Amino acid sequence: MSEMEVEKPDLTLYNTMTQLKEVYKPMNPGKIGIYVCGITAYDYSHIGHARAAVSFDLLYRYLRHLGYQVTYVRNFTDVDDKAKNCGEKPLDLSNRFCEEYLLDMAALQCLLPTHQPRVSDHMEQIIKMIEKIIENGCGYAVGGDVFFSVDKSPSYGQLSGQRLDHTQAGKRVAVDSRKRNPADFALRKAAKSGEPSWESPWGHGRPGWHIEFDIHGGGADLKFPHHENEIAQTCAACEDSGVNYWLHNGHVTNNNVKMGKSLNNFFTIRQIAANYHPLALRHFLMSAQYRSPLNYSVSQLESSSDALYSLSPYREEMSGDVGKTQQSAEAKEMIKKVKNALKFINVSISKLKKMQKKQRMSLVVSLVEVEKAVREVLDVLGLLTTLSYGELLKDMKQKALTRAGMGEEEVLQRIEERNMARKSKDFRRSDRIRELLAFKGIFLEDVPGDTVWRPSTPLTKPKSGLGLGMTAIVFAIVFTFLGFFFYSR
Fold this sequence. Notes:
- This protein is α/β, with parallel strands linked by helices.
- The protein contains 15 helices and 15 strands.
- 37% of the residues are buried.
């Protein structure tokens, strides 16, 4: 058996259905299908939507990196009653915000899925599936609406842990007296004024739930009733849900309350990207174990931005120093561990954590191999920008100035004032200027013959040098990556 075969373990995923970490076994060897619930397109997407997109983009990237042929489907729900309140033709509104969402995903460096179906394009298939559900005795039509009978689904509630006798139908909306069971849900809704509708055997109407792979993913809030309903209706039509593994990412919270449009406590991707580079937002969204809640925090965004900025000059330094030194045994060991962590995800976390403590090792040598390893990690994590690093740094510095409420001329003026204070040995004033700028997230660094500035986390005392060391950054992002697959609740 080759060394590669010895090192490569089974891929392990946490399955929401069983609440266990399970060895992943594809339906078809070498091929994987992933279905992820996308947005309801009627407004700009917030960072809660972004977390789901980034989480499953990470999975998609990693599976492709392992060599799997991946079919990745992420849908658009472009048929919804929310659109009618926006003063625009519903499908025009949906089309516009589908395109805006794709621009947001490009900014976050989320790869395009292989398929992006829209509900409105698949009405014929949806109608056929509803007919099959009714034919199998699991659905019934009432006055143009079609409902699913949850009493016909013995396993209803298994995914979310909800017991049918404990579900609180009518908690948010009045119970429809036409239902045989208050928990029955709509497969199709009769047409209403101002909403798009399509002809069907039950009259004009639209789907109540989009009708759907080997892996099915989405936000934790979709477990019930959305994904429960998907399972029930698919089993009713096809005798099997067709899904073996259910993955759910945690909520993004604001002051520990789930971020959402109904509470108006959300920030859109566009709002954050106006002040931070989108890759800093991506880094932030991967900073917690993917199934855990992630609380929105300006300080955490600042830290992610700082880490992203710090990485760039180190990579430039590595590229510039290629071949100048011999590779140390310690550097070789670090490279090996990083590569193994990326390629074979079940590598021992405890061993990596022990290595993380060795951050004082000299800046890595034999830099061709190190840069290759780092680029490999960053590419899978979606943090390898297509911009030149000069362009990236320029963009991040401009956003730092925006957050600080300053122009670059003002910063340069403060640097000149500090230089004059140092020449006159007024070190108290010199330190005060540096401190005031640091308070605004502007860190001054003295280099031979000059003083330069860079973005930094405000209100924290900057460390010497360029902030996070390369080793620390590599291990930080590897731990983020491992967390997607490993950690349970």
